[in-house]
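Q: Predict the bound structure with iron/sulfur cluster.
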Amino acid sequence: MHFVQAKSLLTRWNGMNIYRGCSHGCIYCDSRSECYQMKHPFEDIEVKENAPVLLENILKTKRKKIMISTGSMSDPYQHCEEKLGMTRKCLELIDRYGFGASVITKSDLVLRDIDLFDSINRKSKSVLQMSLTIADDRLSKIIEPHVCTTARRYEVLKEFQKRAIPTVVWMTPFLPLLTDTEENLRTILDYCIDAGVKGIICFNIGMTLRQGDREYYYKALDRHFPGLSREYQKRYGSAYEVNSADNTRLMKLFHTTCEQHGILHTPDECFRYIAQMPEKSDQLSLFEDLEKS
Ligand code: SF4
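A: Predicted complex:
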């Protein structure tokens, strides 16, 4: 782990990454790809030490309340967060200044901050985005070795459901010839239905692979599933999109099931939902303005 002073924090989509690199060890992780030009080993986590200061400067000056998101490139609840509490500090600021928050994670450490999600959600809006990809715990321990299993993540979703904090599931990736089965899909969908998730983001029954990520993935396949990387190379060559042979049928099953249960199921509608601030926060800021005047 090493610390840096960042020059800026928010992307133009109001996302932030407090950490660069990740200790969860998912063998398919896209953030390892060379296109992101990381100058340090992926496991040597870069910590943007001044992230809370930068964030507070932004929140102080922004007049319009917006949703601030984190977790698209590295998990904000990876192991070092337990000690450093950087994500928690940022959530405290978001709560204090009346903004909305949305976090993508695979870790049950997020439960530590459920009080903050609750508080933000009462004032404006918070959304927990959780990845569920592998229902089989034995496989999950090989493919996502350093983070809690899908069954545990389902329990986390239930805790958020109890507090009426909305949740969205990232049901991606599905690894061809490993997890692209109807049984896996149905089990994860059952978890989502039972946990009352608002939406599910699933682009395809498949995954993406590119330079850097592909080599790491194939090495892991060679260690745990001998012969499988050769099969991938035969089927997909150097393709970016690597979809299951059963993609069309399983995607139909996915959309139909979500439709039956009133779950948002296209990426666009899920992203729109996550980014949208409810009117109540506009009302809250109006009251704050009236009080100040
Ligand atoms: S949790 Fe996300 S960022 Fe971390 S290794 Fe897994 S896929 Fe990559």
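A: The two ends are 47 Å apart (CA to CA).
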